[in-house]
Amino acid sequence: MSENQTYEKPLPTLDESNQPFWAAAREGKLALQYCAACGKPRYPINHVCPHCLSDQFAWKAVSGCGTVYSSIVFHQVYHQAFAGDVPYNVSLIQLDEGPRMFSNVVGVAPSQVKVGDKVRVVFDPVTPEISIPRFQRAG
Ligand SMILES: [Zn+2]
Question: Residue 84 sits in which domain range?
Fold first, then answer.
């Protein structure tokens, strides 16, 4: 990113708990925290498994494939940095591995995104540290 380009939208704060997620994203991989005791994916990131209460986990890259579970189109500007983006979709993606993740489906008109669409993750490198996972229609 050159000096005169700045990213005006809110960014996640990197910390010890989410750093592996964003490191994988920089490498073009979607990674999830998996419980080391019961083996279930843990998302959102949590220091304790919601299923078995274990605090042990490991990060694993997942397929990045999923299905649109829900999708809406934002027309209202809730944050000035998004003024140039409306209308845009906000979609809840059911990952093949189980968890659901809020994101955007890109590469298609926002109103064309349909529940049940098969999607695959793509990464949007918005800063040198942060590549945001978004989704596009698969196949
Ligand atoms: Zn567990």
Answer: 19-137
